[in-house]
Amino acid sequence: MLTLISAKPQNLSPPLSFHFPLFPFSPTSSLSFHPPLKNTLRLRIRSIDAAQPYDYESHLRTQHLKSQSLKIAILGFGNFGQFLAKTFSRQGHTLLAYSRTKYTDTAKSLGVTFYNNPDDLFESHPEVVILCTSILSTEKVLQSLPFQRLKRSTLFVDVLSVKEFAKTILLKYLPVEFDILCTHPMFGPESGKNSWDGLPFVYDKVRIGNEEDRISRVERFLDVFAKEGCRMVEMTCAEHDRHAAGSQFVTHTMGRVLERFGLESSPINTKGYDTLLDLVEVTAGDSFELYYGLFMYNKNAMEQLERLDMAFEAIKKELFGKLHHVYRKQLFGNADEGAEDRPKVQKLLHNGAPPSADAVKPETS
Ligand code: NAP
């Protein structure tokens, strides 16, 4: 509706208003419209945008947002589920959630409809279901879900921090009609609390139907993260697990070791020490169950733990070796100097077998 208000006199009530048909019409054509006026009033248009009979721009924007928005169900509304919901909600998606604990109030404050049982949630027919439960409970949760209540074209997404296990188990339990997208946002409520800009988001399109609407739905879901500035990384679940064991699992392990060690802030913290304190804080925010899941369900984790152990031993050996050298010097003084030239025998080579003749040759340099 275009509202024309007279500048003079002010006592005209109600203000003159003209109703225009919706189409065909353009914002500019409205400005050149001159209705016959009985008294010669000077008319001034106060607000073009608000007064448009049909605010085409905002209509287009609303239409676009609607077409991009998804009906997303979050299964497992704990630490990470709630963290994701904040951003999904801000972006205008319709959110539903189910968890074994009742999070009704928290959900309400985040604009999420909370369901007390998965049957009711699934009967609301979300387009996307995100599995945000702990790694350890995944199989049990999947076995208990009433998939028959969902639409056959539902997109199932997981955010588990281990990916090969997630892929295997989703393929095992989900109906074949469902699409499967395995993802791992490589950040959490601590590291991503201010922004997701530049943070890695790993995904693997494990099984997506050929239909255009299925393809575009996955893209719309991925766009949720891309829009926040995430660094989108497409890689296989196996590749993810290899990289994650060497980076994420090691990070969590060091954070937990230092937490046990009992780091405390001091008045003379160096920058490096502050980094360690931050690491402890970030890892302490995650449940032990999550850490245990990283270890149990990533086959590469054990090797990394052993490497850490060996590295720690090697550092200790190097330090103690130097200390031993100084100690011997103090004990034996110069009398021990020739010891360096004596043949070095590595006694426990070959699982304790006697050293070969080569191994006892004196070192020449
Ligand atoms: P978590 O301890 O790994 O999982 C907690 C969630 O699992 C809660 O929603 C909890 O439900 C649910 N749960 C645990 N045991 C269950 C069971 N037996 N039956 C049903 N539900 C059960 O902590 P989280 O940080 O929230 O992580 C959730 C998922 O996100 C995990 O798969 C994790 O690998 C992934 N992830 C986490 C982060 C992170 O930074 N935290 C980052 C990326 C990915 P209730 O609360 O209702 O008990």
From TrEMBL:
Domain annotation TYRAAT2-like C-terminal: ranges: 257-330
Stretches assigned to the Prephenate dehydrogenase nucleotide-binding domain: 85-195
Gene3D superfamilies: NAD(P)-binding Rossmann-like Domain
Region (Disordered): 338-365
InterPro entries named among the record's database cross-references: 6-PGluconate_DH-like_C_sf, Arogenate_DH_2, NAD(P)-bd_dom_sf, PDH_N, TYRAAT1/2, TYRAAT2_C
Any one GO molecular-function label of the UniProt entry: NAD+ binding
Pfam entry (one): PDH_N
UniProt GO BP: tyrosine biosynthetic process
Name this protein carries in UniProt: Prephenate/arogenate dehydrogenase domain-containing protein
Organism: Salix udensis
